[in-house]
Amino acid sequence: MRVRQSSRARKPFDPRALAVALALCLGVIAVPGAAHADVRPMTVCGQEMDVEIDGGLAYWRASCRGTTMTVSGWVRDTDADGMCARVKALIGTRWHYSARACPEGDQESFSFSGTDNDAQVYLYVEAA
Known about the structure:
mainly beta; four-stranded antiparallel sheet; about 10% helix; about 50% strand; signal
């Protein structure tokens, strides 16, 4: 599993990002053998993320205008395993879901908007 801030946008260090990364690492170590991994970095205004897990790859960028946050990007299926890659995001109190990206090589774009200044964004795989 790889989570990194995109090299396309160099932002000042955010200590919350370190806390999220540490929580992700501890969560992965605590549940070995899980059926699938999901990645849920906290995304804030102006941040770009590249995320990769077994079977999926995604990129998203968060932008804000007033109290509205928009998370937009793409998700791609990277394995011929009968699974689909997908992104979901919690912005404010509402869940948003991308289209399923499958079979291998398929890429789907998404754009989610809600009222908040941060979002929990997950990349995961699920059965086709």
